[in-house]
Amino acid sequence: MNAHWRAPETDVATSLAVEFRGTGREYFRVWIVNATLIVLTLGLYGPWAKVRTRRYFYGNTVLAGHSFDYHGAPLRILLGRAIVAALAVAGVIAAGIGPWAQGAWTLAAVAAFPWLVLQTLRFNARNTSWRGVRFNLFATWREAVIACLVWPLAGALTLFLIPLARRAWDGLRIDHLSFDGRRFRTDYSQTRMFAIFATGFVLIVGVLVVMIGATMGVLLVTTRMHDMVKSFIIPIDPSDFGQVFTLLFGTCAFFIAIFVLQMANNLTLSSTTIEGGHRIVSRASPWRVAGIVMGNVVLTGLTLGLYWPFAKVRLARYRMQRCEVIAMGDVDDFVAEALEMQSTVGRELGRTWEFGL
Amino acid sequence: MSALGRYFAPNEARFVPARATVVPKRVLRIETDDGVVLSEGPARGMRASPRLASLTRRIALPDGARFETEDNDGVDALLWKLWRLPRGKLTARLERAWPVVAAVLVASLAAGYLLAVRTAPAATERLAKVTLSAMAHPMSEQALLALDRYALWPTGLSAAEQARANALFAQVAAHGKGGVGAYRLVLRGGWRIGPSAFALPDGTVVVTDKLWTQLRDDDEAAGVFAREISHVDHAHQLQRVYQVALWPAAVATLTGDISRMSEMAANLPGLIAQSPVPAGFERQADDDAATALRAMGRKPSHLAALLERLARATCSGKFCPMNWAGTDAVARAARLRAQDVGVIADACTGGWQGRLTLRCLGLAR
Q1: Which of A76, A272, A335, B121 could form a disulfide with A186 if both were Cys (CB 3.0 to 4.6 A apart)?
Q2: Antiparallel, parallel or unpaired: β A182-186 and A177-179
Q3: Optimal mutation site among B55, B68, B315, B318, interface A, most CBs of chain A within 10 A
Q4: Contact B13/A67, CB-based, under 8 Å?
Q5: How far apart are CA B335 and CA A290, in angstroms?
Q6: Model confidence over B72-86: pLDDT tens digits?
Q7: To 5 degrees, how large is the angle CA A249–CA A255–CA A256?
Q8: Does A28 touch chain B (CB under 8 A)?
């Protein structure tokens, strides 16, 4: 992995700001057209809608004055979805045939899952460009199996291995990514990732303890009040107590999950370098991101989904404005070199089976 | 017509401010403000990115160079002049007319809702009513055989009790749409099915011993029979089968494919034993039963009392397991009581879907 890694070429560092120029109002129009066409075509327009959405978000993400671009072909995404649908239909048929067929299908589906993930990651990378230079992803099915099946399974079974599963996932999507020839690499201390997930675990347990304590306290106080003043009525029906508890705990857990994931994202991104010495920095506040997401969920619910496009733009804008790229040396030269390499090597041929989801 | 933008030479990261125009013979020319031609060539091999909101448009030229501009209208005009269809123009128009698009979306969702909530049930009702009696009988026989094997046993009622039940049933059947000969009463002991009664598509009404012994008078028994006869008249069981498999049912009805019908009939015992009767069917049966009871000089409130009693016996707090009284039994009982004098109570009760009718909203009588 990264056998051709090169040392930084120059010590002159320049900070390149990342910004998101899209607006909720503008994206709302794109979104409403997408939603309408998806409904009218009974879902068939989905791939086209996906491409338009990605183009909008990539096209409005600007680094050093130049926007990203997305070139995915909707028909390729349709092909990917048809493959998944065929797999699902095969599952139904296999279930009707018998247990052995169902077992064979399960094995095939398990093997296909990392392949599908890899194909999607590769498709997205190859169809993303900045200043005319395309990204690429060079990972193998075996590496995808390890990142998408082995580590997640180990993480789910043991819980304390989740940070390692995250490391494997970062390795798959970042360490194999290239900016046409220039490889990306993310390198962070496992201890820090463990510390992030441990923080999340402590927060969840803390919230649980506080909530159980508060619940018992409320029950105790209200029961005593009821004993003292018979006319006092316990404000919550005891049969609804479990639901209220689950709702409150679920909300807190969701908030903590976003908080932890943003901390992990910050660590991953801020530990990512691009061959040539360029480095990414993400300083998005996990509290702020969690707050924005919670606010977005509430407003989207209150507006029956109409706030969704504004929510998406709001989150993207905050995350992007807290990102920057520390470039070592002249970026124009870097891009020119990548363009040269791109035209020399040429785009990889034989992409008949390339597809996205 | 021209578009101002930036020209990137092949493999070049730096750009030159430039202007794109179309010159005669459908040739795209890119030149600087000073008139220096940077690139010139036919449209063949050229690729322009589709229009989307106010995103920068990119024209990739065959030699690897590219031209970028924010002038969307300018690019579209250039493409027309080059006899190339600008992609994304239709969606751009739709985006501009977004209130209309939003209205279409709302209308489509409403149409989809109506299709699912109104049209599909109407289709199943129509299908159920046109189902040949030749199909209904084998379906019913098959369902009863399956229930006898797994959930019912022969009745333990005395011959006198059975005779009383049959006599009363005949009186009620006379008020059914099919008349006396169209229905038959089958009494069964319950094994896995408790106090219950259900109707089969061919007019068979099954009543379990456990229900019969809980009936306090003939008015209640007549109410039970009248409700089940209403289920037969409206082909409710067939509708439930067809709701599970609407398209196969439509094909089978059109082709008269009895073998396929019998495949679908396999769902019937499961539906009877495990799935609650839809609230709409229950209310329809209540109304018909009330009409029949009044015609016989009996009071629907007796049936209401039975519904309440069964609901009380089986429900624990908010949890109400499936029973013959059906869903929302207490509210339905109140509605039945009001029908003692032939007045149909306000039907605008239950879930929000039930209230969303023109009558409940006060827009129609």
Answers
A1: A272
A2: antiparallel
A3: B55
A4: no
A5: 50
A6: 888 888 888 888 777
A7: 90
A8: yes
**B14 to A60: CB separation less than 8 angstroms, yes or no:** no
Q: What is the pTM of this model?
A: 0.72
Strands A177-179 and A133-137: antiparallel
Which domains are seen in chain B, by residue range? Answer: 2-95 (2.30.29.30), 111-355 (no CATH)
A2-16, A39-53, B100-114: which is most confident: A39-53
Residue identified by tokens 């065929």 is A86
- Could you tell me if A74 lies within 8 Å of chain B, comparing CB atoms? no
Instruction: For A212-247, write each residue's pLDDT tens digit.
Output: 898 888 878 877 877 777 676 666 666 667 778 888
**Structure tokens of B58?**
């990119």
